Amino acid sequence: MIAIVDYGMGNVASVKTAFLNLGYEVEITDSLERLKQATHIILPGVGSFKAAVEEINQRRLLEPLRELAQEKPFIGICLGMQLLFDKGYENGKSDGLGLIPGEVNKIETEYILPHIGWNQLQIENNNKPFAEFQDKHVYFVHSFQARTEQEFLVATSDYGTEIPAIVQKGHVYGMQFHPEKSGEAGIELLKVFLENTSSVRGQVK
């Protein structure tokens, strides 16, 4: 079972549909017991970093999510990706999950914010198995971006500045865009994440 973390700030219905379309059992939950039973953890998110951390704390999920990410494949989507980092500065400074080193700050660009729409992926260092997604278009909606080391970058996108689009540390992944709204390319990217982490917990279908 794939668990989508429900903390009241995610576009969970469309995310669930994306994984169902790939043929997986999916559950939206904030139950720690159910999260522990899952093979993969999905952390979506729409809204501000600070508000998200407060919601996660209210549900007493911050430390459990940190612990679960040490043993299970874990992916953050949009705001969920930003929460993977050490700190965020939206509406004040807040601590994130600290799963990938880095911080989240407002995008420094001459372009209009928020960054909304389709943009191309630039795959870093011919990163396998993502190399086939070079120049593919995916759908972004955000005003803040991660700042992290090159070693954690799988893909970037240009919006008057370099935007980390896909990040990875071990079996923890993040996608700044919305794969569930990015057509066939988005679904295939989720499929790569699932297949590339299947050895961590065994086959999940």
TrEMBL record:
Its EC number is 4.3.2.10, 3.5.1.2. InterPro entries: Class_I_gatase-like, GATASE, Imidazole-glycPsynth_HisH. It comes from the Bacteria. It catalyses: L-glutamine + H2O = L-glutamate + NH4(+); 5-[(5-phospho-1-deoxy-D-ribulos-1-ylimino)methylamino]-1-(5-phospho-beta-D-ribosyl)imidazole-4-carboxamide + L-glutamine = D-erythro-1-(imidazol-4-yl)glycerol 3-phosphate + 5-amino-1-(5-phospho-beta-D-ribosyl)imidazole-4-carboxamide + L-glutamate + H(+). Gene3D superfamilies: 3.40.50.880. It is found in: Cytoplasm. CDD domains: GATase1_IGP_Synthase. The active site is at residues 78, 178, 180. Pathway: Amino-acid biosynthesis; L-histidine biosynthesis; L-histidine from 5-phospho-alpha-D-ribose 1-diphosphate: step 5/9. Residues 4-194 form the Glutamine amidotransferase domain. One of its GO terms (molecular function) is lyase activity. Keywords: Amino-acid biosynthesis, Cytoplasm, Glutamine amidotransferase, Histidine biosynthesis, Hydrolase, Lyase. Heterodimer of HisH and HisF. PANTHER family: IMIDAZOLE GLYCEROL PHOSPHATE SYNTHASE SUBUNIT HISH. IGPS catalyzes the conversion of PRFAR and glutamine to IGP, AICAR and glutamate. The HisH subunit catalyzes the hydrolysis of glutamine to glutamate and ammonia as part of the synthesis of IGP and AICAR. The resulting ammonia molecule is channeled to the active site of HisF. This is Imidazole glycerol phosphate synthase subunit HisH.
